Amino acid sequence: KCLGVGVRAFEVASDYTQNYVQGGRILIKHQAVALGLAEMAMRIEAVRDLLERAARAVDAKDPSAETLCNMAKVYSSEEIMKVAMHCVELHGGNGMMLEFGVEKLFRDAAIFLHMDSTTDISKFKIIKSMFPATAGKYAGPE
Predict the structure, then answer these.
(1) Strand residues in the chain grouped as ranges (E)
(2) 21 has which bridge partners?
(3) Of 45-54, 65-74, 91-100, 116-125, where does mean pLDDT reach its minimum?
(4) 90 and 36 in contact (C-beta within 8 Å)?
(5) Fewer CB within 10 Å, N- or C-terminus of the chain?
(6) What is the pLDDT of residue 119?
């Protein structure tokens, strides 16, 4: 779901920047705008790759599956939030107007930071699964 929100934010931002004119040029011709779109695309691809790796680990019943799933959850929620924020910023003032729907994508991205557990709790789960003998539930005395 999180990846889908990011992809949609990129599609909306891409469409807007290729059709909206600012300063006599379409937005995408402005270097800062083009760099913002590139950042969005890179973040989406990185999320997609980690998510795919986690899914393969689950399918293969790999012992690292739990760790990878928690990493995918944390990383995707943080990166897609950045993608949604870029989308809002590229729309300028229109980014918060209800008619554009960009603010909805931003709100949708924000909720993923807190689904299942907060990002900090998920990070603790990652460390506990990586180092069960020292950081895990059954670790020795403090």
Answers:
(1) 21-22, 25-26
(2) 26
(3) 91-100
(4) yes
(5) C
(6) 86
Query: Residue 55: helix, strand or coil by DSSP?
Result: helix
Distance CA 83, CA 59 (A): 28
Q: How many CA atoms lie within 13 A of 43 on its CB side?
A: 27
Residue 24 CB neighbour total at 10 angstroms: 6
The answer to whether 28 and 21 have CB atoms below 8 angstroms apart is no
Q: What is the mean pLDDT of the chain?
A: 91
Q: Residue 72 is encoded by which pair of tokens?
A: 């995918």
Q: Please identify which residue in the block is written with the tokens 């990011």.
A: 6
Distance between CA atoms of residues 73 and 89, nearest Å: 24
Angle (CA) 79-38-83 rounded to 5° is 25
Instruction: Name the strand (E) or helix (H) holding 21.
Output: strand 21-22
Which pLDDT belongs to residue 140?
A: 53
Report how far residue 134's alpha carbon sits from residue 142's, in angstroms, rounded to the nearest whole number.
Answer: 9
Q: Token pair 């299942």 is at which residue? A: 116
CB 18 within 8 A of CB 92: no
